[in-house]
Specification:
The complex is a heterodimer of chains A (701) and B (243). Chain A has 701 residues and is α+β, with helices and mostly antiparallel strands. Chain A has three domains: 197 residues, Aldehyde Ferredoxin Oxidoreductase,  A, domain 1 (4-Layer Sandwich), CATH 3.60.9; 137 residues, no CATH class; 223 residues, Aldehyde Ferredoxin Oxidoreductase Protein, subunit A, domain 3 (Orthogonal Bundle). In chain A, a hairpin with a 6-residue loop joins strand 14 and strand 15. Chain A is 39% helix and 13% strand. Chain B has 243 residues and is of the alpha+beta class. Chain B folds into two domains: 67 residues, no CATH class; 151 residues, Alpha-Beta Plaits, CATH 3.30.70. Chain B has eight helices and nine strands. The radius of gyration of chain B is 19 Å and the shape is globular. The two termini of chain B are 13 Å apart. The relative contact order of chain B is 0.18. The chains are: A alpha+beta (701), B alpha+beta (243). Strand 13 of chain A pairs antiparallel with strand 4 of chain B.
């Protein structure tokens, strides 16, 4: 049993070039970085030189989890996978992908906080991690197989409990737009090709050990119950989507979908989701139905149940049963996923014969999930499908692709919204067949470059939601005004931060949000009603900093930033307050290393700063403000030309956003002119040697 | 009355007695049976000198599970082990989800045609039946370490007596005995003395703590037991059941 609670205590390192397998002491080497992305950034900083490309053997992949993974802390199922990002354009920079499922917990039970993969195997292999027994195994039989067959064959060897993270054909063929996937439907985008470049087909993990809770078990039980009581539905929406007998508020935009009469219709017998009064902790799992949220009321009749990660009572993956697809498309009648994974197939089409929420749309989702989650194709948070529509309807495909190839696609089916079109498209992306599919598999940035399309066209297009570096926005001005914009400037892929949007979209009336915001960020003016934005102020910058640090903290502790933080709650008696300290309470009790909220936020800031330093080092530029933290033109436009700050628009104002960035850099104690952290800031956060290294390269402001 | 008929009737009345909430002392009943080799493991009652423990008081409660409501989150396994043992450890959880989670009770060979997340979605929660006599795990224990504990009369492992031989694991047809390699002891469902943590933890209300009823004939066994009953216990069986 590990000395400390929480952590497993060991990091596994596997060199695929030499076959060497070794372990390191987690706390000796990575204590200042907690786990997850913290270990990831640290390894890339220390061990991967600037200029290395994603698919070079010198690139490394770090599958990191944190001290809370595998415990009963709610929402701890996520594995952070850090590497040089292949869809980051024009050059690969550090980024992370995040998968849920059972992998994170199983890795901890096997005795590891992270797996570092380095080098390149000379033939296809898979990694078997069975407690302390770790082996590199021949994967030649698995190569060329989809994710599902690969998983089942590895489970045949390791038993049904093993969690298998595998790539499909897309990853094998080094398509940058590819995923690694575990537990049927839980993927991390962008990583598939990096695994493929290392000839690594899969990692199977089986753990029979345990994660020790250092603190008193009665206190732990109390804390878990407190945390559970603060949970809302998916994305921490804390009010129901329609009026409930117990609810003071409701909001049609909420993912809290449960209600009397809304049934899991494909359960046998069917189950009424009912009122789901928030104090009843035995009904949390019924609150969320993301299929119904995204696909409309028709999805209820197809709902078998909610599914999701280890220890998470919010079942954000919805399992659907659509018997018609079996005969119609020859695919299994069950499918499951969430959000963009669920919508993968539907999103390619502009319209369907029976509307966007009709039966055909659901069938397109089923076909999309069946194909994409087996071939291992990634959609870059929906950018793939938005690009596809634009490229087709603007005639770009026709211009860029040879006639014979263009005509080999059934475009009439595509235009009619026939899901069978996906059988023509998705396997070709995974197998890089032809120019069209190969270009799509590169990701937006590299596709535009290959076809000589100026990025500017994408930056100006309001419908494409493209942000920068080959990636789209992820909860930006449409959810949180300037705060969202700031957050979307910071990462090297889509931002994946939900700290801010989980608050602004929680469904509470703006007056309540403002009251809570005043307590959290010093003023009610930190938040605005969505699409009724007001000019920038320092409190919005505080909220942006807080949001980024909590995202990073969650990625290191293994808490789900798609659910947290938990600063608002569904509880009227708490005046809808959550608890801003829940992360530090969980961390302290689980590990036995008592840390206050502020102390933990400081560690998160160190980790976020290391990400910044890596970006600066690998870009070879210190002028981040103009070279990295860029904002697409569409943010400053409005389709109806409404003025910024008028009601009903998410349009931002250029001068105001300049001020926003000034205030954010100031809040971070970074140099305002360049947006680069100062030497003093690196030192304050314990990254003196990082500052020295950057100084040597002339990369300090 | 022939000898064998007499034995049979005594056994029947013994079981009736146990199944009722009879208030008269077990000792009184023991005397009534005229020195037959039967003893009871009840609250604090020691096994009678005449022979080893065989018959146990019936359990008062058990956990009942509804697979159609199970969402596969494993919070029950974690509540079981964190709140009772101070560690998250599905391997020693006394309710078992993980093994059925992906492919269902029939496991990998069924692939996508079975249960679990890869099959029809149904997750069967494996629970301890708190078996009536004969209690397979208790009978197989060479140390008589599986005893009845009030107030629920759950069959529980007395860790002081458990030697960690794992014979109990080979006895349970439902594979509900766990072995904690940290303590080197067997462990099993003890109903949390009447308020099971798993039931409280289930976010979809799929578990219920209910009055005991006999599910042993209703839930298909997972394995054929391979434990050996010690000769002196087998002798007790023979004494009672001899025709």
């Amino acid at each position: 049993m590990a000395k400390h609670g929480g952590w497993a205590g060991k990091v596994l390192r596997v060199d695929l070039s030499t076959g060497k397998i070794s372990t390191e002491d987690t706390l000796e080497k990575y204590r200042d970085y907690l786990g997850g992305t913290g270990i990831g950034y640290k390894v890339i900083w220390d061990e991967v030189q600037a200029g290395v490309k994603s698919f070079d053997p010198a690139n490394k992949i770090v599958y990191g989890v944190g001290p809370l993974a595998g415990t009963g802390a709610p929402c701890n199922g996520r594995t952070a996978i850090t590497t040089l990002w292949p869809t980051c354009w024009p050059k690969a920079l550090v980024a992370s992908g995040h998968m849920g499922g059972q992998f994170a917990a199983e890795l901890k039970y096997a005795g590891y906080d992270a797996i570092i993969i380095e080098g390149r195997a000379d033939r296809p292999v898979w990694l078997s991690v069975w407690d302390e027994k770790v082996e590199i195994k021949d994967a030649r039989q698995l190569w060329g197989q989809g994710i599902r067959r690969t998983t089942i064959e590895i489970n045949q060897q390791m038993g049904p409990e093993a969690s298998v993270a595998a790539i499909g054909q897309a990853g094998e063929n080094l398509a940058p737009m590819s995923v690694v996937m575990n537990s049927y439907s839980h993927s991390a985008g962008g990583v598939g090709g990096v695994m493929g470049s290392k000839n690594l087909k899969a990692i199977g993990v089986r753990g029979t050990g345990s994660v020790r809770i250092a603190g008193n078990k009665e206190e732990w039980e109390k804390l878990i119950k407190l945390h559970l009581s603060l949970l809302g539905a998916n994305n921490q929406h804390v009010v129901p989507s329609n009026p409930q007998p117990w609810a003071e508020h409701y909001n049609a935009g909420s993912r809290w979908m449960a209600s009397a009469g809304r049934r899991w219709g494909a359960a046998n017998p069917s189950i009424d989701t009912g009122a789901c009064e928030p104090h009843n902790l035995n009904r949390i799992a019924y609150r969320t139905n993301n299929a119904a949220y995204f696909l409309g009321d028709k999805a209820w009749q197809h709902t078998v149940r909610g599914n999701g990660c280890t220890a998470c009572p919010i079942r954000c993956h919805t399992m659907l049963k659509v018997p018609a697809v079996s005969a119609k498309y020859g695919i299994p009648e069950l499918g499951q996923n969430t959000c963009v994974g669920l919508l993968f197939g539907r999103a390619f089409f502009k319209s369907f014969p029976d509307g966007p929420k009709g039966q055909t749309a659901i069938e397109a989702c089923m076909v999309g999930m069946y194909l994409a989650d087996d071939l291992g194709v990634w959609d870059n948070y929906g950018q793939l499908q938005r690009d596809f529509q634009a490229l087709y309807y603007n005639g770009i495909f026709k211009r860029k692709v040879a006639e014979k190839e263009f005509n080999s696609y059934s475009w009439n089916k595509y235009e009619q919204g026939d899901p069978t079109f996906l059988f023509e498209l998705l396997p070709r992306i995974a197998n890089k067949e032809g120019e069209l599919a190969t270009a799509l598999g590169l990701g937006t940035g590299h596709l535009l470059e290959r076809w000589g399309i100026p990025e500017q066209e994408w930056l100006e297009n309001h419908d494409l939601l493209y942000w920068k570096l080959g990636h789209p926005k992820h909860h930006s001005n449409e959810d949180a005004g300037q705060c969202g914009v700031i957050i979307n400037t910071q990462y090297n892929r889509d931002a994946q931060c939900h700290s801010h949007s989980n608050f602004t979209r929680n469904g509470l009336p703006i007056e309540v949000q403002k009251r809570l915001a005043a307590e959290l960020w010093g003023s009610p003016d930190a938040v605005d009603a969505v699409a009724a934005f007001t000019p920038m102020n320092a409190h919005k910058a505080k909220m942006a900093k807080w949001s980024l640090l909590r995202k990073e903290l969650h990625d290191c502790l293994s808490l789900c930033n798609w659910m947290g933080p938990w600063v608002a709650s569904p509880l009227k008696e708490r005046e809808y307050r959550g608890d801003d300290s829940i992360e530090s309470l969980l961390y302290s009790l689980a590990t036995g290393d008592k840390k206050s909220r502020q102390e933990l936020d400081t560690i998160a800031e160190r980790i976020f700063l290391l990400h910044r330093a890596l970006t600066i080092r690998d870009m070879g530029a210190k002028d981040m403000r103009t070279k990295h933290d860029t904002i697409p033109d569409w943010v400053f436009t409005d389709p109806k030309d409404k003025a910024a700050f008028s009601k009903g628009t998410i349009r931002m104002d250029k001068e105001d956003i300049k001020l926003a960035m000034d205030m954010f850099y100031e809040e971070m104690a970074w140099d305002k002119e360049t947006g680069s952290p100062t030497k003093a800031t690196y030192r304050r956060l314990g990254l003196g040697t990082v500052a020295d290294e950057l100084a040597k390269r002339g990369l300090l402001p | 009355m022939t000898g064998e008929k007499q034995k049979h009737e005594i056994l029947e009345s013994a079981l009736d007695f146990i199944n009722s909430s009879h208030s008269s002392s077990r000792r009184e009943f023991f005397l009534m049976t005229g020195g037959l080799i039967i003893a009871f493991s009840a609250s604090g009652a020691k096994a009678a000198k005449e022979g080893p423990v065989i018959i146990m008081d019936q359990a008062e409660g058990l956990v009942i599970a509804d697979p159609t409501k199970c969402v596969g989150c494993r919070r029950c396994e974690l509540a079981c082990t964190e709140f009772n043992d101070g560690k998250a450890s599905p391997t020693i959880a006394r309710i078992k989800i993980s093994r059925n989670l992906n492919f269902g009770v029939n496991g990998i060979p069924t692939g996508q045609r079975g249960g679990g997340a890869w099959g029809n979605g149904l997750v069967i929660q494996d629970i301890c039946n708190q078996c009536p006599h004969p209690v397979p795990c208790a009978n197989a224990c060479p140390n008589d370490a599986i005893v009845v504990r009030p107030p629920t009369n759950a069959r529980v492992v007395d860790s002081k007596r458990c030697s960690g031989c794992k014979m109990c694991r080979r006895a349970c047809p439902w594979e509900m005995m766990s072995f904690d390699s940290g303590t080197n002891k067997a462990t099993k469902c003890f109903l949390c003395d009447g308020s099971p943590k798993c039931v409280e933890a289930c976010p979809s209300g799929a578990l219920t703590y209910a009055a005991w009823r006999d599910l042993t004939g209703k839930i298909p066994p997972r394995v054929a037991p391979t434990a050996i009953v010690a000769p002196e216990k087998a002798q007790t069986c023979n004494e009672c059941h001899k025709k």
